[in-house]
Automatic annotation (TrEMBL):
Name of the protein this chain belongs to: Alpha/beta hydrolase
Gene3D superfamilies: alpha/beta hydrolase
Family designation: Belongs to the 'GDXG' lipolytic enzyme family.
Pfam families: Abhydrolase_3
Swiss-Prot/TrEMBL keywords: Hydrolase
Presence of keyword Hydrolase: yes
PANTHER family registered for this protein in UniProt: AB HYDROLASE SUPERFAMILY PROTEIN C4A8.06C, ALPHA_BETA HYDROLASE FOLD-3 DOMAIN-CONTAINING PROTEIN-RELATED
UniProt lineage: Bacteria, Pseudomonadati, Pseudomonadota, Betaproteobacteria, Burkholderiales
Amino acid sequence: MPKTILQGSWSHRCRSALTLWATTIDVLARRIIAKPLVSGWSVPFEIATLFYRKQFNHAFRLPTLAEGRAYFDSLYTIAEPDLPVQMQASTSPEPRGDWFIPDRPNSSKTILYFHGGGYAFYPIVSRHFTRLLAHKLQIPIFAVDYRLTPEHPHPAQQEDALEAYRYLLKRGIPAQDIVLAGDSAGGHLVLMTLVSLRQAGLPQPSLALALSPWTDIGRRGASQFGYDRYDMVQGYQTLQYGQWLKGNGLWSDDQLSPIAQDLRHLAPIYIQAGGKEILVDMIRDFAQEAHKQGAGIRLDVWPDMTHEFHAYGRTLPQSEQAIAALRTAIQWTKGGVFEPAEETELNGLDSAFGKAQRKDIKAV
């Protein structure tokens, strides 16, 4: 059973609870007289999507980002609570972060995970999602607690990511046993870290998993604002996140956008996205650009899903399907490449993913 947590100040708790109540009433009433916002959405999924949208919007309106972060954490739902995963905070001199150790790890791989939140938030619910992934994949995960914007603009996050990667190498974990993974801004950091590793002369990981990744910090694609009515994340927020990432530096959008990078000679990349999320057009553009440059890449899009639909676990069939496909992708890595190694085109892993495919998934 999903579990809802209320915490923090009474004012934040009360407003969040009222927002959830009002959203629930609105969705139920609208379904009586009309249709769901998207025909394939369940009632709980529609409520959650609209609720988190309102939470993010209110967090952005608060006087300080610190208060916005606290407000967003005041009410959240855990899809699968009490999972048998041990969480261990890193200790000095290790990079800041947490280890998530599943009860029955069944792989030699280790995942280096970068959380989402536009580089400005690290919501508590993100840690529960990492716990969910560790349990579903049965792979140890080190989730980096990288520095946040706007307090710490670029290159702070990139520096923290490289430090964490070196930390795993120093622990004796070979690069071919490391999988980079991340969601949203964390997906952005995954893609930029692949480039930074090559520039630093460090070995590539065996695989990169990017869930709903942010691939252009500027404006790109009609969905960035055109899908605001569907998604929990809004187009204006992406532009603000981009400004915070650039800080007062002389960085251009292209310098900090994965789509504008040299994507040759990188680890294989597997991307998952929702067809109703604001980032889907820029994600498709990135996949096409990476393919054009000769990168090994696959993109799967779940047509009716929104940003980071993966976090719903067993409460949402599409989430379960996506995580199963992640598990299959990891199983198909060997020595840093997908098997069969020559299949590096956009749709080149159809045979390899075989059983992981569902009719509501399409390769782009």
